[in-house]
Amino acid sequence: MDLSRQSAAQTPEICIHRGSLTGFVFDQPASVDLEEEVRFGSVLRGRSSISFIPPPDLAPGERLRLRVHFEKDPPEQGVTFMLVAHPEQVTHQIDVFHDQRSRASLWQELEEERARSQRLDEENQSLHGQLKAHGGLLRLFLNGELGFDELRKKVFGADKARSTESSLSMSDGVLFRSFHSVAVRLSVQNTGTEPWRVVKALLVANEGMPLEGIQFGPSQAILPGAVGSVFVEARAAAGAPLEGLTLTLSEEGPRSITVENLALP
C-alpha cells in the first residue's frame, strides 16, 4: 500500500478474523496505537512492524482503529487504518510504503519481515494444535489451571438472581473454582420481545472488589422465548480471600441480570 497514492480523507479498511494473524510492515520506523489492545490475543511490535491476533470475542462487522505515526513525521501527522472483522476473509500482511528509498532496499526489508511473520504464524498454528490435541481436564492441567484442590464446582438456584426487567430470569447456575480463576455459568431465559446479548460482565468479590481478566461468551444473543447459557471467567489466584461473589451481565440497552452472594465451592 503506497500512502502517497491514498486520499487524505480516505481511511483504508483491512479485513481481520479472530484467531488469524495479521501484520503491518512499514518502510520506516513507526509507533502504532491499537484500539482496545487489551482485548487482543497477542500483539508483537517491532520498530517498523506490528503483528497481532485479533480478540477471541471479535464480532463480525466490528471495527477497530489502528493509528500509525512515523518517526520522521511531525507529531500531529499520522495515518489511520480501520480494522474490520470479517467472518471468512483475512488480510495476513500489509506492506506500507511511506518514503522514497530504493525499491530494492525496501523489498529486502519486507522479505525479512515476511519471513519473520511466517515464522510467527507457524508458531501460532503449532500452539493452536497443541491446545486442540488436549481437551477436558488434561488441557486445564497443561495450562496450570489445576492445583492440589483440582477443579471444584457448586450449583445454585434462581433465588440468587435479580433482574432490571421481568423479561430476564435465571433457572440455575454453576460456580467453578480452579487454581488461577473463578467462573460462573448461568442459564438465562429471555421472555421479552427483543434478543438479549451480553456486552459487559462484572464479577465483584468482598464488598466491591472487581475481579480482573474478565472473559465471557458466547457472543450470540439469546432470542425471545429461548433459554441460553452464559459463561463468565475471571482471574483469581489460589488463596485469594474471596467470600461472596456478585455477577452482573448487561446488554447495550437497559436490561441486565445480577446474581448475588455466591459462595465459593
Structure at a glance:
The chain is about 15% helix and about 40% strand. It has two helices and 18 strands.
User: How many separate structural domains?
Assistant: 2
CATH topology of the largest domain: Immunoglobulin-like
Instruction: Report the CATH C-level class of the largest domain.
Output: Mainly Beta
- Show unreliable segments: none
Beta content comes to 35-45%
In CATH, the architecture of the largest domain is Sandwich
Straight-line distance between termini: 55 Å
- The strands making up the biggest β-sheet line up spatially as 9-11-12-16-15
Main β sheet profile:
5 strands, antiparallel
Could you report the average pLDDT, rounded to the nearest whole number? Answer: 81
Secondary structure: helix percent? 10-25%
Series of secondary-structure elements, N-terminal to C-terminal? EEEEEEEEHHEEEEEEEEEE
Cα shape: elongated
The overall strand count is 18
Task: Tell me the Rg in angstroms.
Answer: 23 Å
| Sheet/helix structural class | mainly beta
Number of helices: 2
Protein name: DUF2381 family protein
Pfam family, one: DUF2381
InterPro entries: Mxa_paralog_2268
